[in-house]
What we know:
The chain contains 28 helices and no strands. By secondary structure, the chain is mainly α. The chain has 2 domains: about 160 residues, no CATH class; about 180 residues.
Amino acid sequence: MKPWLPFGITFTAGLAAAAGLYFWKGHRMAALQDAARPSAVGRASTDSEAARKPAGVKKPVGPEQAKLDAAMRPTRNGIRSLFERSAKILDMDEEQVSKLLAELEATGRIRSPLAGISLMAAYARLAELNPAAAMDRATKLERGELRGIAMFATMNEWLVKDRKGAVAWFASSGDEEEKKQYLTMAAFSMGGSDPDLITELTGAINDPEAKKKALLDSLGALAFSDPDAAIKKLDEIEDPDERSEAEERVYQGFLMRYPEKALDFAMAKPPGDKAREAARQSLVQWGEQDPGAALKWLTSQNKDVQKELFDMPGSGPGWGFGKATPEQIGDAARQLGDQTQKDKLYAAYANAQGMSNPTTGLSQLSNIKDAELQKSTAASLGMAAARSGKVNDMTTWLETVPPNDARDSAVAAFAAGIAQKDPTAAGEWAAKITSQTIRQQTIEALKNPAAMPIPEPPPLPGRPRRNR
């Protein structure tokens, strides 16, 4: 095995675990995450430390760290410097690595991102040479970030070198809290590539909630890396409540990387299932990232599925597919089952343009055949244009659109939106309304703008409306 390979595995797993722990436990492993940034690696002290010290004064380091510093080639590439430093540590013998660890552990804490990576590499090397000795040393450290990194690096290397021995040590350890912490990191970092390991490790944990959490975390990671394997694991869960929770994690894992598979998974569930109820929201989110693929999936579904996605209670047209082109929306609309669904697609797309490009949104109104939906969409676009200050967009649009109720609804909402900040301009816009009834209602309402009912644009999927 090449000398850098075990540490490469540990380093990659460490970064994944750091990200997971940052989410679950705050800052405990943040130093590992920061170390991956080019601006934070490849130097002996952090910028904040340098800022606190007078010019020309360097933080003293031990002789082993000084040797590493002297051996580094000048470079602006922090990642390259980090791996060169780690490679040199991985070439050390047991005596040298023990001396380096003594220096790194002397303060009892991680003083810089580079020190954190050096500590990880040093424990990885010691574990490669003598895993039992490395773990013995790590467990004698005080609880905290230093000990967590040391045990994580040691355990990962031990698993590469002697999986059976590492799992046996884990099972025999009486420190339940440390085992649970490592299990959390392992579930995030290795659950997607080695789910059987997580199963082995959970067998050595007494806390049923910790075991359950680790298995769910690893299943979510597995869904992200190997969806077919995740589905197979789901089939092995017999308890209906556990399966329900596991399916939710799998669905979330799919959404992050395989949105088409996530939606297929959701729509295969019976009515009332959480995943199925969230399918429209998931489709809209996918459509905001890759509208072409999302629209292709939508139009490939049968008419019943299309109707369900558009007619889910409380969802309304909402927002959706904002990054699509008008041509893509038009092509998709022509493939939908009926005019109601076409109208809702056009309305969703128009609403998605409201804040950034209201002209494009307003140009879609003529495609909406339902009169009430056309007017409500126009009102939401007018309000969005007012909030984003798109006066020129509204002016240009008015020059091209024929008088009708949808046009007047947009102008009325725009006037209402700017009334409190600029009542004079609001009155001028109200005068442009061609319908005498809508114009008079708007003028009357503008006399007391603070009490005006202001139409709200549809909320983003999964987000509540603002409290006014």
